[in-house]
Design goal:
Elements lengths: L3 E10 L2 E11 L4 E5 L6 H8 L7 E6 L2 E2 L9 E4 L12 H11 L4 H14 L15 H13 L5 E5 L7 H13 L3 E5 L3 H7 L2 E6 L2 E6 L1 H5 L2 H6 L24
Parallel strand pairs: 3-8, 3-9, 6-7, 7-8
Antiparallel strand pairs: 1-2, 1-4, 4-5, 9-10
């Protein structure tokens, strides 16, 4: 039942090892949080999984088929940390249609997929807008729609809640929770990871340090501190104080 298999993965930038013999098995439909300090190798891992970077050594397969660097893999979608790096077309519609068009789909299929992806993300009413005129939260959802329109089996989210306000962040969380595809989420927003993930993987110095239940892994304060992270606030003991009196001003 494995959809993604990573075996003894190594990646080295010039004179800088980043991934050091990492192995991982992912089952279909899992929502997995990938956490770790800056420089741990999370983004590099995502870029090797989707074929943007070529591993120094090791093997990555999706449903048993090798992932080859430099090729278009529509079965794997990567949502970039910064939507502006992903949105480049003159309209929202054109941006979301870019992937399906490059898959060689018919005009009717492209129309159907783009409409469905924009409706799922709540962006259909903005289809004629220029992406650079949108808010940060809207740009994020359009970028996700562009990935969803290709109907990938695996979606990689790189810091998806970065620079989002509370409302846009909540919209994103609820969307991810409803998503049926297999998902890997790399984020420093540990409360979000805790809410959307059924499994969490802690990476540091190119190695998997822990892999298991999010509450158990992220609730281990000693483990988290040892790898430059804090235990999520919601997993700490709380003292409930009575509500204070206050007045709202017009």
């Amino acid at each position: 039942m494995t959809i993604l298999s990573i075996q003894d993965l190594h990646f080295t930038y010039p004179e800088t090892p980043v991934l050091r013999g990492l192995s991982l098995e992912i089952n279909p439909g899992q929502h997995i949080g990938v956490i770790g300090p800056n420089g741990a190798g999370k983004t590099t891992l995502f870029h090797t999984i989707c074929g943007v970077l070529k591993p120094t050594s090791g093997r990555i397969t999706l449903d048993g088929e090798p992932i080859k660097a430099g090729r278009f893999h529509p079965r794997i979608g990567l949502v970039f940390q910064y939507p502006d790096d992903q949105l480049f077309s003159p309209s929202v519609w054109d941006d979301v249609a870019f992937g399906p068009l490059n898959m060689g789909l018919s005009a009717d299929s492209v129309q159907e997929r783009v409409t469905a992806a924009l409706a799922e993300t709540g962006m259909l009413a903005l289809k004629e807008r220029a992406p650079h005129h949108l808010s940060g939260g809207q740009k994020r959802m359009v970028a996700i729609a562009g990935i969803r329109a290709m109907q990938p089996e695996l979606v990689l989210y790189d810091e998806p809640s970065a620079n989002l306000d509370m409302r846009a962040r909540r919209q994103l969380i609820e969307f991810i929770k409803r998503s049926a595809e297999t998902i890997l989420i790399s984020s420093h927003d540990l409360e979000m990871v805790l809410e959307v993930s059924s499994r969490v993987i802690l990476i540091d110095d190119g190695h998997i340090i822990a892999d298991g239940d999010p509450k158990e892994v992220m609730g281990n304060e000693t483990l988290m501190k040892a790898h430059g992270l804090e235990r999520p606030h919601s997993l700490r003991p709380h003292v409930h104080l009575p509500d204070a009196d206050f007045h709202l001003h017009d």
